[in-house]
Each structure stands twice: as structure tokens, then as C-alpha cells.
Amino acid sequence: MHSYLEFEKPLAALEGKAEELRAIARGNAEMDMEQEAKALDDKANDLLKNLYSNLSAWQKCQIARHPNRPHCQDYIKALFTDYTPMAGDRNFADDHAVMGGLARFDGQPVMVIGHEKGNDTKSRIERNFGMARPEGYRKAIRLMEMADKFNIPVITLIDTPGAYPGKGAEERGQSEAIARSTEKCLQIGVPLISIVIGEGGSGGAVAFATANKLAMLEHSVYSVISPEGCAAILWKDPTKVEEAAEALRLTSGDLKKLKVADVVIEEPNGGAQRNKDAAIENVSKALAKMLGDLKGKSRKALVRERRKKYLEVGSKGLSR
Predict the structure, then answer these.
(1) How many CB atoms lie within 10 A of CB 16?
(2) Given this model, what pLDDT does residue 32 score?
(3) What span, in angstroms and rounded, lies between the C-alpha atoms of 19 and 22?
(4) Which residues have C-beta within 8 Å of that of residue 83, sequence separation ≥ 6?
(5) Cα dist from 278 to 236, 268, 269, 271, 293, whole Å
(6) pLDDT confidence of 314, banded at 50, 70, 90?
(7) Which single residue of 120, 186, 290, 302 has CA 20 to 30 Å from 10?
(8) Is residue 3 very low, low, confident or very high in pLDDT (cuts 50, 70, 90)?
(9) Contact indicator for 159, 115 with CB cutoff of 8 Å
């Protein structure tokens, strides 16, 4: 069953009515409701296109957080073969908010690392809603070092509200772990490709996304702070979230203009949550192209280009 966002309520009414007509027809073989239901389907499709052709930044935030969007483990299962998960930071524990391991993409060995939010109450609690603790970032560092040692490209899948801000995480050096992970992204001499598949929140995302190529799904977001946090700090008013979302310029379109994102990956009509297979296929094509663009580059060139990219962020594309 599809879960509707607040701005999709008119769509929910149309699609619900069409399903109601079909349910009546299923219960009475003498009644043919398909023509009426089909007319409602057509209206719903037109409304869906209209809604998604003119989305606000806040609406895109809601879509990026949609619980039915494909998550990291969905992409790993669909896109990679021979996936061998690797656990632990060899120091404290295994953080289930971060998953990663060796795999193959189109037959090529890669190291894949990503945030996993979970898809039901039990798994979301186990995965800490995708909010990594220090051991999660230290696990990522370990996997990046292994990839660098064996000259294997690294692919990271970003989907986190931000790093976990709990007392235990701070005691174990959360900020230091994030900084070290970001530093490791800048140091490794292999291709590093990051894809924001949902939320890219704060330093928790930057620690995985300081890459040669940063791609964003069309309705994903990437920002230094959530709109709610921004509204609370700047205006001390939670009703200002829509204004905050616009000011943060966190959408894929804005970040492409600012040269933060290199690639925007198109989503099916209605977002990735309505057609997971199509969204994953689009990611596969974009990933293959980005890997091809980086293939054959020397270790020095990869490091140099990555550093140059981030030194130049914000210096261009600032005017609307």
C-alpha cells in the first residue's frame, strides 16, 4: 500500500476512489467498473505529473524522507553481485547504521559503503534510523583503506539525517571520527563515487560524500543542517521550515548549479518510492557512466581533482 505525503492528499483521494470501484467490481461479477476506474486513473496520473513538476524545497525534503524509497540495502541487492559484508571498526563495535563490503558492479570489483535506515520499526531501531555513531565512520575508514590498498573503486550511498548526537557517541569521539572519514575520502588514490539516495544530512553525509563524483537522485536533499534545525536556530520558530528549506538550497537542482553535485539522476514520475525498479535502473546507468569517466586516471590525478573540486565549492554558481 502506498504511503501518501501531506501534499499528495488530493492524489490519495483519486487513487482511493479508483481502487474502491475495482473492489466493488471484484465483489459483484455483474458490475463493470473498469471504465470509470480507468478515468480516475488518468486524472490521478495527470495530477501526479502536475504535483511533481512544481515541487518546493520542503516538499522535496518530505520525498527524500519517504519511508518507501529504496534504501541502501535495496541498491546493494539489485546492483551488485558477490556482495560480501564486512563488519566492525576493529576498535569498539559494529555500527548497523553503516553497511559495507566488497562486491562487483558489472563484473568490476568495488567497495560499497552506505547508510541504512531500515524499513520497519524493528530494523529502524537496529539501524538507528541511519544515524551513524563513531564506530560507523571508523568502519568506513577501514573499508576505504582496504579499497585503496587493493586499488578498488569506492562507491558510497548516502541516506542519513545526520550523525548520531547521543552522549555515548560524543564520548567516543564523534566529531573526530567524522573528520577522519572526510580526510580519508580526500586521501585515497582510487575512484570515489558518492550517490545521495535520500537525505544527505550534515557532516554525517560529508564524511562519505567527499568524492570525485557526487550524484544526487532528483528528489534527494543534501545540506549542512535539516530545515527543522535551521528554523529552530535562526528563527526559533518551527513553522519556518518551508522558508528554511528554500534558504538552505538543498535540492539537487540548486546543488548542481553550485557545483556541489556533479550529476542529477532522474526519478520516475512520483518519485523513487513509486517505482523502485526504475529508480534503481537509473542509478545503475549513472554509476556505470561515472565509473567509466574515472577509469584509467592515475592515483595522483584522482586525489588532485578531488581536492580541487572541494576547494572550489561555493566560488562559482552563487547567483540565481
Answers:
(1) 14
(2) 74
(3) 5
(4) 76, 77, 101, 102, 103, 112
(5) 40, 6, 10, 10, 23
(6) low
(7) 120
(8) confident
(9) yes
